């Protein structure tokens, strides 16, 4: 069975255009006009990637994102009208893995989706079992344990943690993390990293406001404390 | 009447200067009038007083000397010397042989008498007085005929003293007039400043509005005469603000509305383009190529319009983070330039991290590179160096035709392509790039400008000056970017 992509968009023309472009890449596309439809469709037939427009009638994109995220770690891309508003951060905090700004070129969308699919499917055999105090990472199984109990991470959060764990104690700049985790070049949006680090901390830290594992090196980036 | 009708202005002398000058002239005129009146009244008074004194005294002395003339041993000089007078007495006595003149003062003797006065006294036998000039001195002479003794008695008073008194009075008055004039000018200047203060308030407000602070309003005036001006000014600004915001919103709305059809277009064209080889003939392929290119241009235009309308709406915010400028410049050049462009930089910048908005730095540089690509055959060199006062200068040089002096500012206007951009070519942009670069630079507290390429080489150099601050960095080695 091929890759399924769910696109949630109320503008019919854009939905059709996106569907057309994605089908041209060889993917199967499910369409949903409202958030409620999208959640129903996802429950019936889980997708490999979900594309959510923030501006939806009724239930908004953030709510759809949160709802799907509660049930699944499927990669989610938010579509926003503007990159410089609070929408981007709010979307990422609602659980999105990446975002796109309208108008986007269909090629850009396909590139983002391919990057997400790669992340979702790749295990990382380069790093073996690691443990940092109460934290254990088992890359082969895609598993993270906090005090012996499994912590549920999305694929992106997991990739981010493994990346940091590949050189414990070393500072990774946002640019490096954007490139290695998201596949962006030098010009990715640093907020992607910041919000994902925040989400990661709420899951693996005892006190997210006072992190012990993933620490910020002011002015430079992030590192995993050994 | 054209739409840009302007009120008639008089640019030569400012209103304040004119009020000051008027006050000064008024004061001068008034004080001169006062001075000359004072002078002439004083002069008349002094002279009249001196004259009446002289007349009384001369009459008394004439009577005194009258009795002595007939005496045998008459000694004129001695008799004259015995008289009490501050003036110069002259006695003329007729004798058989002619006339005998007696006087005490060699300068003011009989020679100093005016002939008409002398004739009036001697021939007509009447007492007379006269003011005249002799040897450059103003004189007053009073003559009394002594018919019984066949003599005439005169007294000559030198009025030079009065004239010099009047002269010093005149100088004092002129000094006073000068001071009054200055005081008038000062008063005028003060009054004009006070009177024009509402105007300078308005001018300050207008300047603030011109700089984009559209919420600027004038405080309501206490003065009932000024209130209509203030309220109509404020109404005008409100109308202007409303219009500007409406225009900005319109541009933004239009761009937003354009996005949906544009995405449909993009997606459709992409699907077609993926099947380009399946198209039946060359004409269809050419048509598709045209479409692909113009949809891309259209996309860029809408993106630029959206960005610039966000500037107009004041919705832009800086997103600062620690940035290695040299890496950013290199990455931007790699991403934007079609050919390899050398990047020359100050070596001290290589490992330095500054706090700035990376996306905007890249946008400025990308727009410069894009401009060089479209109008000058591509950039030849990109430089990054330290500028004055904690700034970084990033410059893009090209070997094109250069920018004429009168275009150097205008090319940063929206949709302005300058002389060299006058012809619309297929792959040329829409003229928003440099305007956007300028907006980004201003938001970062910097500026952009165009200049000639240094060392007299042909071509232009577009410079971005950016103020920078060092972040509070800790001494931790950074992962090199691979």
- Please report the distance between the alpha carbons of the first and last residues of chain A: 42 Å
CATH class of the largest domain in chain B: Alpha Beta
What percent of residues of chain A adopt helix (DSSP H or I)? 40-55%
Shape of chain A: globular
Low-confidence stretches of chain A at least 5 residues in length (pLDDT < 50)? none
Strand content of chain A: 15-25%
Instruction: Decide which structural class fits the backbone of chain B.
Output: alpha+beta
CATH architecture of the largest domain in chain B: 2-Layer Sandwich
* Number of DSSP helical runs of chain A: 8
Mean pLDDT of chain B: 83
Give the overall pLDDT of chain A as a whole number: 87
Q: Report on the biggest sheet of chain A.
A: 5 strands, parallel
Give the strand order, joined by hyphens, for the main sheet of chain B: 2-1-5-4-3
Q: What is the topological layout?
A:
The complex is a heterodimer of chains A (226) and B (482).
Chain A: E1 4-8, H1 12-24, E2 28-32, H2 35-44, E3 49-53, H3 61-71, E4 76-80, H4 86-93, E5 98-101, H5 106-121, E6 130-132, E7 135-138, E8 143-146, E9 149-151, H6 155-165, H7 174-182, H8 190-204, E10 214-217, E11 221-224
Parallel strand pairs in A: 1-2, 1-3, 3-4, 4-5
Antiparallel strand pairs in A: 6-7, 7-8, 8-9, 10-11
Chain B: H1 15-69, H2 76-82, E1 88-94, E2 99-103, H3 115-122, E3 128-134, E4 137-146, E5 151-158, H4 160-210, H5 227-274, H6 282-312, E6 321-324, H7 325-336, E7 343-345, E8 353-356, H8 358-375, E9 379-387, E10 391-398, H9 433-443, E11 447-452, E12 460-467
